[in-house]
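Proteins fold. Shown next:

***
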Amino acid sequence: MCDAPELISQIEILGLRIFGRFEISAEDCPEGQGGLSKRSAILIGNVGPAMWRVFENSKEYQDGKRDPLNRWTAGVVGELATKSECHALFPFDQPYWPFQRFAHQATGEIQSPLGIFIHPEYGLWHAFRAVLIFERGSSLGSEVHKLIQVPEKLIHPCDDCVEKPCLSACPVNAFSDSRLDVQSCFSHIDSTVEPHCMQLGCRARDACPVGKKYRYSDEQVRFHMNYYRN
């Protein structure tokens, strides 16, 4: 079994990172999964284009089959979980776990007006991919937690953003009050009307001034747009 620095290093080699730590509560557990409650956990995700540079060279990305990113994530994080004697959770697996609650507990982040979690440094250019849950009394879990600070209360960047350009940038005004009018959005991206959001990416997300240097690459943006639409 690897030690804490090795686990963290292996996560970073994959272009991923640990966002924070938290404890699984009984309320978090779907029916039949209560045995995982009261265990320490870490939240894993990606920031900017680092993960993409690893993923685009993977067999999952190149094999033409469905859900390549989910399959890649399950494979690489699942392997880390096996080596570390942890239990891995993914937001795309059933039974569904409350990943937004985990994200808030681990990072202190809350939703932007678009409904996407926003970070004061990374903006909207990050995502949460997996959770590793340690066995009770795990020495590795204790080691990892010592290396990860409990999140301080984050400054919510949207509070000081008066103009909120994200809400006015959508060409069909699909966003309002943290809700997305999916039908309006899909109708536009299926049309030939400019701007061509399937190629350029979501205009609302791009309009946010926070974390611009972490923007995904154009290829990564198109990949996510295609996954979102299909």
